[in-house]
Each structure stands twice: as C-alpha cells, then as structure tokens.
C-alpha cells in the first residue's frame, strides 16, 4: 500500500520529500482515531501479549539457539 | 525577570549554558568540557547539565544505578519498548525509534506522568507534615481526589521487584536514609495497615531518593527523560533481525470491526 501511494504521489507530481511529508500528514487522522479509541477502552484493555515472549538462550559464542 | 520584547532577542541569545568555540574548546555551564569531563561518566555530565550543580560520586552512581535497575528492561511487551520494536519491524531508523519510544514514555499511568506526580506528592507531603498536618488525612484526601496515590500501586503486579536492589544500592552508597525515603516507606506502611492494599512502586522510591539529593520536581523530570533508552535499543535491534512486519502481527480477522458500515458511494 505504501508503494501504491508513493507511485500515485509521484504521478501527481510530488517529489520524494514532498510525497513523504504528505503521506505522514495523511496517515495522522487514522492513527489519531486508533489512539482515541484505545484511550476510551482504558489501560486494562491494553494488549500485553503476556505469553508471546519466549526467551532463548545464547551460547558462549553469542549465537542464539532455541 | 522583566518581560522583554522579542526585539531584544533578535540575533541575541545570552547564555549561561555555554558554547562551542570552533577549533578551540567547549564551555559547558562555565566549565571547560574537555578538561573537566573527558573522564567523567556521562551521567555526571547529564546531571550537571540539568541541575548546574556538581553531584558527589555516590550521588551520580545512585542516579545511574536507578536507570540500570528500574527502567532498562529489554521487553517489547512494555508500552514504550513496544514502540521501539514496532519502529524496527517497520524498518524505521534507530533515531526515530528511540525518539518515538521516548515520546510515548510521557504516559499518564506509567513513566513520566507518575514520576513527576510522585516527587511532587512526596515533597509537598513532607512539607505539610512538617507544618503539623496529619499524614493519614493527607493520604486519604489524595486517594479520594485522584483515585490513586502517585508512586503506589502497580497495574500488572502489586509487588515491585526493583525496590530491594535499588534500596541495597542506596544503602551501600549511604544515601538510603533520607527523609523522603523514610516518608515513602511510612506511607506504604500506612496503606497496608488500612484498607487500601497499595504497595510502593519504584516511581515513589526513585522520586524519594532524588528529592533527598535535592532535585526539584522539574530537574527530576528532566533526569528521567532518557531513562528507558537502554531498554529501547535491544527491542528495536531484535525487530530488525526478524522479517519486516514480524513483530507480533495480528491477522486481519482478529480485528473485530464494530463501527459504521462501509460507505456506498
């Protein structure tokens, strides 16, 4: 999607810096909507992913193994 | 300070903080940076920059140890570390990752919000008690008005595992017996004795230690700003090692949309 937007902005005559800045601005309303909704849900509804972390061990050489 | 019009500041920035003299030297709050701080710890320089005061070796070690113990967890489940990891998974830069994670550290129930409220509460409470106010009444009023007590209670688990190592460090440095630390523990004892069941969290303890070292609330707040940094970088870097978008993705059908129906143009 980012690539599609980039291509569209290029076609509309924006250079890369202009396109990047405009893209950031245009994404803000959606981000704001998510932030406001999450705030109204309260801190107890924060998805903590409690069981998603699985700590792996590193051997003495510094490489990781399961 | 007299109010001066903006015209007075045009091409005119008077500073006590110092300056760079290209090719020569750097002045840092009146001291030669190269001569005075070349072998100093960065924490010493940071605290001098914030307060303008030279702290003792023990105080600098205390403030650095508090960062190491209390706020350097490399766990991306934690809200601000999560942002650093998300920046990595989105292939953003380290600078933006750390800046964004630092920005969200100004949270209201974790991080900077409780830090500032805790030190203000402890300093104000100590002053009130010294003027004859009743501690239990002060605590009860605060809990009633704010539905909580800054520096006490913890959302995920009530006990705070950081308190014993920080107190061990403080006592080893002979800095653990100050009046604000004593007050912080006295408040915890009061809370547990009464109906509240709130234990001290590390925000109260570090705030108390800082107050005992003479930091004002705003100086303390400034000191805390970068404190999570050592935890941010590992979270960001590990997300870079894994596929783009690979940090705890959610499949589309796990999002249960309940908003307005799709618009028909």
Key features of this structure:
heterodimer; A: 66 residues; mainly alpha; two-stranded antiparallel sheet; 2 helices; flat; disordered C terminus; B: 265 residues; 3-stranded antiparallel β-sheet; 12 helices
Give a written overview of the molecule:
The complex is a heterodimer of chains A (66) and B (265). With 66 residues, chain A is mostly helical. Chain A contains two helices and two strands, in the order ααββ. Chain A has helices at residues 2-11, 16-41, and strands at residues 57-58, 64-65. In chain A, helix 1 packs across helix 2 (16-41). Chain A is flat and about 50 Å long. Chain A starts with a helix and ends with a strand. Mean pLDDT of chain A is 86; it is low at 60-66. With 265 residues, chain B is mainly alpha-helical. The termini of chain B are far apart. The longest helix of chain B has 19 residues, at 112-130. Chain B has a three-stranded antiparallel sheet with strand order 1-2-3. The model of chain B has no long low-confidence stretch (mean pLDDT 95). In chain B, strand 1 (18-21) and strand 2 (25-28) form a beta hairpin. The interface between A and B is small, with 8 and 8 residues.
**Order of strands across the main sheet of chain B:** 1-2-3
Reading the helices and strands of chain B in chain order gives EEEHHHHHHHHHHHH
Classification by helices and strands of chain B: mainly alpha
> Span between N and C termini of chain A?
35 Å
Q: Uncertain segments of chain A of ≥5 residues (pLDDT<50)? A: 60-66
Number of strands of chain A: 2
The coarse silhouette of chain A is flat
Low-confidence stretches of chain B: none
Q: Work out the radius of gyration of chain A.
A: 20 Å
Number of helices of chain B: 12
> Radius of gyration of chain B, Cα only, in angstroms?
22 Å
The main pleated sheet of chain A reads as: 2 strands, antiparallel
Query: Mean pLDDT across all residues of chain A, rounded?
Result: 86
What count of helical segments of chain A does DSSP give?
2
For the biggest β-sheet of chain A, the strand order reads 1-2
| Main beta sheet of chain B | 3 strands, antiparallel
What is the structural class of chain A? mainly alpha
What percentage of amino acids of chain B are in beta strands? under 5%
